[in-house]
Structures are given as structure tokens and as C-alpha cells.
UniProtKB/TrEMBL annotation:
Belongs to the major royal jelly protein family. Coiled coil: none annotated. Keywords: Glycoprotein, Secreted, Signal. Residues 1-18 form the signal peptide. Its main location: secreted. InterPro entries: 6-blade_b-propeller_TolB-like, MRJP/yellow-related. It comes from the Eukaryota. Transmembrane segments: none annotated. This is Uncharacterized protein. It is found in: Secreted. The keyword Secreted applies.
């Protein structure tokens, strides 16, 4: 479309410049408006051509169909790759497996950089209720009653006898992250239903071999009895060994910063990590439930002159915040007091009208997240001077498939050389109030090409230069 507009300008310029008596004015008009349409949507630019040049076509459609993420997988209830039918029956008898209870929360996808290895699609299944047999698995092509079967990762032995706290264990996982080095980072919160039965830990797997590379138990001094670690953000720099993990604790309202190279961690706290009481009640399509979750949704902007911002939000809140990772990585700041540096945390002054959970940021610095009550997916350019409805755009709107976006990732598809957006959605409100119907599709994994989602949106356009939001809602001019 933009090529067409440029062609029209080139064809029309000679005649315009030779227009009698207007040679001193028209070039300025043309230049100004060329700049305009190059920085605005095709629809707006074509409208300008119709008004100014009289070039209109009834064959040009201004309506842009909003892309919808297509459903890759759907479940009425989760079904697993049991070692035997007797194992399944034993789990049901002992209430270790209650059909219809398990709910997927996050997704991540491994595309081998060489394009030859079989792809893996991971799902997390936190064990916050009784009857969830595993905490992490991969989706297979096999089905049971129409439900894709999930096989435990890396195998069943990691999920058996969790209460024994074996060295090779996975208890409960909300979210995971696959990095550019082909490693899977698993944040295991160690919690079974309401109790931490094993120390929370960070596991790292080599996805080429599915072997454990390292494990790190978070020190007891860095979490509380109420702690629930829910989101790991992995920050890789020059070499794969130079890696930091920012782990969100949504109930103790804290971050744990893990230095992978040096094998140590420290705790960071701030009031921007806390939930807002007025946002503790969720209402999704007529179903209500209460959830007071603090810091949860997080992701990193692209590296910029050796530093980058970590964007984050408390789930039960209306605000978006950010902090420089260089400040979080400065252990000495927090050595004596985890809450010693309120000045490094910043909050945009604009607010949402509803809650938002996970977020993901693509290579161009465009952020994606869901709006709970509106049941929508939005994009927002992290380079914009502010946050809020004036700066974001709704890119998907489907009351059926976009309910409760709990997990979202931007994935590099190396073979096709583009980025994809993957998301987990669910009728979590029905899980919360016990009204789930396993005969309906309750859980979905969605996917769409990133460029198709943001095409012709304001998210693709950089906002005017200006300072970002200031600390604690104060805009810094």
C-alpha cells in the first residue's frame, strides 16, 4: 500500500510543481504531507490523497480486518501421557489426579536454530489445587477424547513423590522461559496447594539433550511462607554464562535477582510490586472471583546501549512500571535492605480500568498483554512517552478465545525468520468458582505472526520523543 502511495506522488509531482502561480507553496505542502503519510496509517494517508489530490478509487477498501490469534490447541480438560492405565486409576483413587481440575497457565516454544530438530511446545500446570499430577509438560500430537495429551517434562520421575524433595524434582510451575542459548528456565515455587513443601528453585535444562544443566535453591532468607514465585525473566548478555534471572514473587511482593554466573541471589522489594485492593475482584463475562496478586507480568525491552528496562505490573493493579536492570543487578544496593532504593522504580501515570497478567515484548520493543474484564489483547510501544488507552491499541477482541490471558510469549521462529506471539487463555473464572464444564473448550493455546498482529497499528509508530513516566505516578518533565 505504501509503495502505491509513493508511486502516486512520483507520478503527480511534475504536474503539481508546474502548477501556475503556486510553485512557491506546493513543494512545502507535498513535503509536509509525504512526512505525514509515512508516519501514519494507510487509511489516513489515502484519505488525504482523496481530499487534496482528488485521487480516489471505489476499489480501495478502508476497512482493515482485525487479526485474530488462531487456536493451535484446545482442551475441555487436560489429559496426560500416563505410564499405564493402572497409574492413571491409582492417581484418581488417591486424588492425585482429579479430571477437570488441572489448568494450563503458560506456554513456551522451542524452535531449534538449525531448523532440523523437532519443536517442543511447553505448558506449565501449577499445582495450586489438589488433583494436579504434574507441574510441567510438553504437548503431543496424540489425543484422548479430543484433548491433546501432555507428557511430563523431562519425564515422569521428576514429578513423582514431590513431598520427598528429591534433587531431581519439579513441584509446581507457573511460568517458564526459553532463552536464545537453547536453555529452558523453570521457576519451581515448591508449593503444593497451600504449603511450600520444598525450597523454591530455578532449574536450567539444555533443550538439545533435555538434560539438567544446573539447579539453584532460593535461600530461605529470600522468601516467606506466603511466597509464590510465578514469573522468571531471563536476561542474557554477551555470553550465555552472563545471565541474570528476575523472579517475581506475587504474594510476598518481591523480586529475587539470580546471578547465574556467580551462583548467588538477592531480594528486592518496592511498593510498586503490591496489588491494589480495589483491583482484587475480577469480573470476566459475568463470573467474579477474588485474587490479590502482586508483581507478576514482566518482560525486557531490547538491549539499548548496554542497559535495558524491565517492565512489570502487579496483576491486581491498574499500573505499568519499569526499572533499569543495571540497578537490579547492583547487589550492593540491596545488601542491607531489600527496599532501600525506591528512587529507581518508575510508574506511568495513566491507568487501566482492569487487571492484566502476563506480558511479552518483541524485538521492536512492542509490548503485548491482555485486559481481563474487556477480554482483549492490546499492543503498546515501549518507546511511547506514556501508557494507557491513548497509546495502546486493541489488536484482538474475542470473548470466546481470549478469556484470561495468563501466559504470553514472543517466539523467534528461526526457520521462517519471523516472530510469533503465543498465548495461553482459559476459563479461569470457571476454574476459580468451580463451574467448569469439561464438555466445552476451556483452555486454549493461541498463536499468530507478530507482524500480522501489529500491521497498521499505532504500536508500529514511535511516539514523539519525551521522558518516560516518572516515579510513583509522577510524570517527570
Amino acid at each position: 500500500m505504501r509503495c502505491l502511495l509513493v508511486f502516486v506522488i512520483l507520478v503527480c509531482l511534475p504536474g503539481i510543481f508546474n502548477y501556475q502561480g503556486r510553485n512557491d507553496v506546493v513543494p512545502k505542502i507535498v513535503i509536509d504531507n509525504v512526512n505525514y503519510f509515512l508516519h501514519n496509517t494507510e487509511k489516513e494517508a489515502l484519505h488525504w490523497f482523496c481530499l487534496v489530490l482528488g485521487i480516489c478509487s471505489t476499489n480501495v477498501s478502508f476497512a482493515q480486518k482485525q487479526p485474530q490469534l488462531h487456536v493451535k490447541y484446545g482442551w475441555g480438560q487436560l489429559e496426560f501421557d500416563w505410564q499405564s492405565q493402572s497409574q492413571r486409576q491409582e492417581y484418581i483413587s488417591n486424588r492425585k489426579y482429579i479430571p477437570g481440575i488441572s489448568a494450563p497457565i503458560d506456554v513456551d516454544v522451542y524452535y531449534s536454530p538449525d531448523g532440523n530438530q523437532y519443536n517442543k511446545i511447553f505448558v506449565t500446570i501449577p499445582r495450586f489445587q489438589e488433583g494436579v499430577p504434574i507441574g510441567l509438560g510438553t504437548v503431543t500430537d496424540n489425543k484422548s477424547d479430543g484433548n491433546p495429551i501432555i507428557t511430563p517434562y523431562p519425564n515422569w520421575s521428576w514429578h513423582l513423590n514431590s513431598e520427598q524433595c528429591n534433587l531431581n524434582r519439579i513441584v509446581s510451575v507457573y511460568r517458564i522461559k526459553i532463552d536464545e542459548c537453547g536453555r529452558l528456565w523453570v521457576l519451581d515455587n515448591g508449593r503444593l496447594v497451600d504449603t511450600i513443601i520444598c525450597p523454591p528453585q530455578i532449574l536450567v535444562f539444555d533443550l538439545k539433550t533435555n538434560k539438567l544443566l544446573s539447579s539453584y535453591e532460593i535461600p530461605r532468607s529470600q522468601y516467606e511462607k506466603r511466597s509464590i514465585f510465578v514469573t522468571p525473566i531471563v536476561d542474557v548478555r554477551n555470553q550465555c554464562r552472563d545471565t541474570f534471572v528476575y523472579a517475581a514473587d506475587c504474594q510476598a511482593n518481591a523480586l529475587v535477582v539470580y546471578d547465574y554466573n556467580n551462583g548467588n541471589s538477592w531480594r528486592v522489594t518496592d511498593k510498586t510490586f503490591y496489588p491494589y485492593p480495589d483491583y482484587g475482584t475480577y469480573n470476566i463475562l459475568g463470573h467474579s472471583f477474588d485474587l490479590m496478586d502482586g508483581i507478576l507480568g514482566m518482560d525486557l525491552e531490547p538491549l539499548n546501549r548496554g542497559d535495558r528496562k524491565l517492565f512489570y505490573q502487579a496483576m491486581s493493579s491498574p499500573t505499568l512500571n519499569w526499572v533499569y536492570t543495571s540497578d537490579l543487578k547492583n547487589q550492593s544496593r540491596f545488601a542491607s535492605d531489600s527496599g532501600s532504593s525506591p528512587q529507581i522504580f518508575h510508574t506511568y501515570r495513566a491507568r487501566r480500568d482492569t487487571q492484566s497478567a502476563a506480558m511479552a515484548i518483541d524485538k521492536d520493543g512492542i509490548s503485548y498483554s491482555g485486559l481481563m474484564s474487556e477480554v482483549q489483547l492490546i499492543c503498546w510501544n515501549t518507546q511511547a512517552p506514556e501508557y494507557g488507552p491513548k497509546f495502546w491499541e486493541v489488536v484482538a477482541n474475542n470473548k470466546e478465545t481470549l478469556q484470561f490471558i495468563s501466559g504470553i510469549k514472543v517466539i523467534n521462529n528461526y526457520k521462517k525468520n519471523y516472530q510469533e506471539l503465543w498465548a495461553v487463555t482459559s476459563r479461569f473464572q470457571r476454574v476459580a468458582d468451580g463451574s467448569i464444564d469439561v464438555n466445552d473448550v476451556n483452555f486454549r493455546i493461541l498463536v499468530e505472526k507478530v507482524d500480522d498482529i501489529t500491521f497498521s497499528t499505532r504500536c508500529k509508530k514511535r511516539g514523539p520523543s519525551g521522558p518516560p513516566g516518572g516515579g510513583y505516578g509522577l510524570f517527570r518533565p
